[in-house]
Amino acid sequence: MIEVENLTKYYGRMAAIRDVNFRVESGEIVGFLGPNAAGKTTTMRILTCFAPASAGNVRILGMDVREDSLKIRRKLGYLPEHVPLYDWMRVQGYLEFVARAKGIPSSERQTEIRRVIEEVGLDQVTHKLIKWLSKGYRQRVGLAQALIGDPPILVLDEPTIGLDPKQIREIRLLIKGFAHNRTVILSTHILPEVSQVCDRVIIINKGSIVAEDSPANLARAHGKSTRCHLVARAPESQFRDTIAGVAGVESVAASGHSVPGEVGLTVETGLGADVRPAMARAVLEHGWDLLELRQQHVTLEDVFIDLVTEESDEESPIGDSVMKEAAS
Amino acid sequence: MSGFYAVFRKETANFFVSPIAYAVLTIFLLISGFIFWANVSYMSVISLQAASNPMIGERINITDFVVRPLMQNMGFILLFVMPLITMRVFSEEKKSGCIELLLTYPLTDMAVLAGKFLSVILLLLIILAGTLPMMFLLFGLSQPDPGTIASGYLGLILMGSSFLALGMFISSLTENQIVAAAGSFGAALLFWILGWSSMLTGEHVGAVLKQLAILEHLESFNKGVIALSDLSFFVLFTAFFLFLTLRSLETHRWRG
């Protein structure tokens, strides 16, 4: 549905993105994940035909963004990062403008607007000036304008930025709700969002894709060790030595458990090894009380931090090398 | 087509929701009204003197004493107010980021340009229509030449649209409304006074400068002459800057 090949974009001599390749299949929700200034917005602007690429190809529904910009724009709904809206318009009037601009025939215009207003929950504010809307409602108006015309592809740039936790939840549910028959690309730097909403994650850092998979697979593939959390009522040093002696345990550290008389440990083991039965047996054999034993899963956050920091450790900042390349 | 109409409606609504249209209309009508009053008063003074001197009386007519000076001055006031109308046309969209949505809707650049241009033309027509009551008053008092009035208005409309096209082009270059206004005003003023220097330069350069000067072409409309050369000057001037604006919009698609 969306094919991106060797996409590169220079701003002056700085590469915002370089050699980005990915595909999005029909019906997928893909999360674009990356720290600020990673190239998320640049990629989205190219996909939505707003800004041109310096090099590379983007094909959407088999059409090239440069050749068939107008046809592609008919199939796209776009929510830019800071939700630019006409502040002086009323919600109803604004959506009418959008419906006209998207070429919806006048006979269907009102039904379409009503459908969208219901879908995103704007019924309470249709006659308010956009200027006076809260951030959450502004975001909804932004989503509404993207949904008008029922486009099969939605591109959402940071749809939950600046919202409070309740609003974030609501917007997330909305996105999940209307995504079932659409292809959605959304960018974010908020991690839980991706694991909750997206089928697939593309992690981008400093203009290049560093990982691409489902959230669960990413966590599994990039986890380097398994971690267990263990609490027992026991003498501390003896307890520590015993656990360190269990086969498969790689390292033991105090976990900062603060209840008096109880000792908490964080145990790291090799990947895939399950040492929980062995540790439980060791504690019981010493006659101590085992209070807690829990395996911690590697979260997307660990993977993300891992990938993003790894990159900067390995090489000098990409900006420098790119500048040299561009100059030569 | 519906895309063009969407932009046209939005732009026109913006003028009348914001104070811009009212401010520009008020300023324009206030100054033209003052000039109208001054001219009519002057003529009545001269007429009193003419009562004793029939030689002067023969030369006095309302078209020469009121209509023409009024038309000339309205042209000059338009020079000041047209940049106020066009300064926001593209700059505001750029500054607020709304241009990102506008250019990702399935609208052709032509539809965006036509919608915006026709909405500023509509505002120009409304402003000029506001001066019609003064003309009706003159018809009540005397017999001004309707042909001169009609050609004078045609000249003002053509000159106004030239300024609007020029202002829209400059507005499409910047996201700062002050820069857009100052730039359009400066450029329009330059075209206004270009003819003045024709005496100082050589014969050929002077002739070219004279032909480029807006004032020169407006003059004949005020005399009641609709010459093809003046008509085509304004039409080409407008078309040229609209063309440049369209190109400036298109650069978004490949420059970014």
Description:
The complex is a heterodimer of chains A (328) and B (256). Chain A is an alpha/beta fold and 328 residues long. In chain A, 38% of the residues lie in helices and 27% in strands. Chain A is built from 12 helices and 14 strands. Chain A has helices spanning 40-47, 69-74, 91-101, 106-120, 135-147, 165-178, 191-197, 215-222, 236-244, 276-285, 300-314, 318-327; strands spanning 2-11, 14-24, 29-33, 55-60, 63-64, 76-79, 153-157, 183-188, 200-205, 208-213, 226-233, 249-254, 263-269, 289-296. Chain A is elongated, with a radius of gyration of 25 Å. Helices cover 82% and strands 0% of the residues of chain B. Chain B is built from 13 helices and no strands. Chain B starts with a helix and ends with a helix. Chains A and B meet through α2 and α3 of A and α1, α6 and α13 of B.
Layout of helices and strands, plus pairs?
The complex is a heterodimer of chains A (328) and B (256).
Chain A lengths: L1 E10 L2 E11 L4 E5 L6 H8 L7 E6 L2 E2 L4 H6 L1 E4 L11 H11 L4 H15 L14 H13 L5 E5 L7 H14 L4 E6 L2 H7 L2 E6 L2 E6 L1 H8 L3 E8 L2 H9 L4 E6 L8 E7 L6 H10 L3 E8 L3 H15 L3 H10 L1
Parallel strand pairs in A: 3-8, 3-9, 6-7, 7-8
Antiparallel strand pairs in A: 1-2, 1-4, 4-5, 9-10, 11-13, 11-14, 12-13
Helix pairs in contact in A: 3-4, 4-5, 8-11
Chain B lengths: L1 H16 L2 H31 L3 H6 L2 H25 L4 H6 L1 H5 L6 H21 L2 H10 L4 H26 L5 H17 L9 H10 L1 H9 L5 H27 L2
Short synopsis of the structure:
With 328 residues, chain A is an alpha/beta fold.
Q: What portion of residues of chain B is helical? A: over 70%
Number of helices of chain B: 13
Q: What structural class results from the helix and strand content of chain A?
A: alpha/beta
Poorly predicted runs of chain B are: none
Q: If you compute it from the alpha carbons, what radius of gyration of chain A comes out, rounded to the nearest whole angstrom?
A: 25 Å
Termini of chain B, distance in Å? Answer: 27 Å
What's the total helix number of chain A?
A: 12
In angstroms, what separates the terminal alpha carbons of chain A?
A: 36 Å
Task: State the strand order across the main sheet of chain A.
Answer: 6-7-8-3-9-10
Major sheet attributes of chain B:
none
Mean pLDDT level of chain A:
83
Oligomeric state: heterodimer
Rg measurement of chain B, Å: 21 Å
Note the run of SSEs of chain A as H and E: EEEHEEHEHHHEHEHEEHEHEEHEHH
Strand-residue proportion of chain B: under 5%
Largest interface: A-B, 33 and 29 residues
Coarse morphology of chain A: elongated
The description of the largest β-sheet of chain A is:
6 strands, mixed
